[in-house]
Amino acid sequence: MKKIIFSALIAFLFVFNAQAQDSITETTNDYSKWQARFRVIAVIPSPGDDIDGADVDISTSFVPELDFTYFFTKNIAAELILATTKHNVDIPVLDADLGHVWLLPPTLNLQYHFYAGDFKPYIGAGINYTIFYGVDEGDFDEIDYENSFGFSFQAGVDYNINDKLFLNLDFKQLLLSTDVTVNDSPEDVEVDINPIVIGVGIGMRF
Questions:
Q1: N or C: which end of the chain has fewer CB within 10 A?
Q2: What 3-state class would DSSP assign to 190?
Q3: Where do the domains of the chain lie?
Q4: Which pairs with CB-CB distance under 8 Å and at least 24 residues apart come from 5-10?
């Protein structure tokens, strides 16, 4: 279902891109260099078969998010995304509670923006560095999550309310994994997290 939603949004963006070719002006001074958004996001991890052949279950989290975008040109921009999320972790088939962990994944995306009237679709890609903190070990004595780099892919659309304010719908896929050590085991286990991030919010141009 997630892949269908993401594919539909990509198709949506290309339709708007085709329409936008007739509406983009040749001037380069009619855009704001800075914009900021406040979103409410759903962070939906997509873990796999990682620990002892068992599926790891990582809970979905709903949190606020803040991002800042700088436009190098009318179409090309960089966006810094800031949020922190808490997730419960367990292995249902083993009835094992791995407690919870907080994630702080600052993400930097390079974006391309299209223009079609009051709609401004965009696509982007970049990197994130995820910091794991506030670990609760659950049924175990000690669990350690290694901070890690990952990749980010993004698609979304802004809708103008007026010259300054706009609404936003945003989809991101983070390719993220971490090495987990349980009870001082000599071997780390790589756990995929790979969250889908869906956000809605409001933004302002400066």
A1: N
A2: strand
A3: 2-21+36-205
A4: 5/171, 6/155, 6/171, 6/173, 6/196, 9/155, 9/156, 9/171, 10/123, 10/155
User: What are residue 7's phi and psi, to 5 degrees?
Assistant: -65, -40
- Check the CA dihedral 26-75-115-31 and report its sign: negative
CA pair distance 115, 121, nearest whole angstrom: 7
**Is the separation of the CB atoms in 117 and 101 below 8 Å?**
no
pLDDT in tens, 30-72: 678 999 999 999 999 986 655 655 678 899 999 999 999 999 9
| pLDDT score of 143 | 87
Tell me the helices (H) and strands (E) count for the chain, helix number first.
1, 16
Give the pLDDT confidence score for residue 26 in this predicted structure.
Answer: 37
pLDDT the model gives residue 12: 47
| Euclidean distance between CA atoms 44 and 40, whole angstroms | 13
Q: Can you name the CATH fold of 2-21+36-205?
A: Porin (2.40.160)
Residue percentage of the chain with pLDDT more than 70:
80
Q: Write out the two tokens for 131.
A: 């910091």
Mean pLDDT of all residues in the chain?
Answer: 84
Q: Which among 107, 87, 106 has a CA at the least distance from the CA of 98?
A: 87
Residue 164 has pLDDT above 70, yes or no: yes
Find, among 176, 193, 185, the residue nearest to 52 by Cα: 185
The whole-model pTM stands at 0.80
